[in-house]
Amino acid sequence: MKQRILIVGAGFAGMWSALSAARLLDQHNHNETEITVLAPQAELRIRPRFYEPNVHNMAAPLGELFDAVGVTFIKGSAEEIDVAAKQVAYRDANGVLASLAYDRLVLASGSKVWRPNLPGLEHAFDVDQIEEAVRLEQHINDLRKLPASPARNTLVVAGGGFTGIETATEMPARLRAALGADADVRVIVVDRGSKIGGAMGDGPQQLVAEASAELGVEWRLNSGVASVDADGVTLADGQRIEAKTVVWTVGVRASSLAEQVPGERDGQGRLHVDRNLKVLGQADVFATGDVAYAQVDDIGNYALMTCQHAIALGRSAGNNVAASLLGVEPIPYSQVKYVTCLDLGAWGAVFTEGWQREVKFVRDEGKRIKTEINSIWIYPPKADRAEALAAADPLIPVVA
Fold this sequence. Notes:
Layout: E1 3-8, H1 12-27, E2 33-39, E3 43-45, E4 59-61, H2 63-69, E5 72-82, E6 87-92, E7 97-101, E8 104-107, E9 111-113, H3 130-142, E10 154-158, H4 162-179, E11 186-190, H5 202-215, E12 217-220, E13 225-229, E14 232-235, E15 240-242, E16 245-248, E17 252-254, E18 271-272, E19 285-287, E20 292-293, H6 307-326, E21 339-343, E22 349-353, E23 358-362, H7 363-377, H8 385-391
Parallel strand pairs: 1-2, 1-8, 2-5, 8-19, 10-11, 10-16, 11-12, 18-20
Antiparallel strand pairs: 3-4, 5-6, 6-7, 9-17, 13-14, 14-15, 21-22, 22-23
């Protein structure tokens, strides 16, 4: 009877886990282990691009790729993890409850934007999941049907972190595309920080401020959103902003499935793992991507909830879960090189290197790199067995 590696999730970490596990099994001519991916859809959703227009196109099919490397895909949503019984219960495509047994589990179920119990937050959009990003795009396009007013022409972004900045700097162009090139639009970022773009560090922060000024993006600093309604937001200090569009980008948390695996978790709900990405205290469970609190180097840096880290985490988790079944040495996860590429709309982009975010490229050159990342580097390999398996080598450096 074949053993099973069960991977929950088909995002960046889940997809690369499957390819990397298949790669190592192939290298050892091992065909007694089945690799199964359980996810709601056989597609890689290009989440880092959801702030852009035409978001409905930002999903890459995975069916042919999985077929090419011998990975079994099961369409369903995981609901319960029973570590003691080594089973995962899920709802299939017809809503029927079923279960899958495993010999090794790789949890790659990702993360979601954190939505606190805030009055009226149901009125806010987000760019976290493709369905929500599509809903936001339709809403922006439908604004033209409303009578002209300051509220119609105003968009508020709650949160001035990476996602908030990319969303805000893209929105002046998106609003004018919907309302007319001469429309008097306003984009306002509400952030608890004391500096524009302060979350990005000193180097990028000054460039975020420059881009915001050039694009007309306003910032309300040292403040937060107290409530949302259909016509705008009320801030914590009592200020009122009339706006027909509010986008929530404040923080993310690991998938709630991580709570079902016994183990230590960080403040974002991520499971603590060892350098081979095995959950601490668990013999047969690995965690990767946004559900893993993983050390990336020997000086104490930890992986962030980014596509850049998820790709490398996935390659490592897949290799090491297969190694644990084969009885061969794992390859400890390491991701010393860290870069960021922050899209700043029509202004351009900022490319930085290192954990101190040293600025290397800006404006058009930064935008060129960002476009290449978003349109090429983060997409799946071709559905060619040899090419896909070669791309899943955990020792390949990742820059995305």
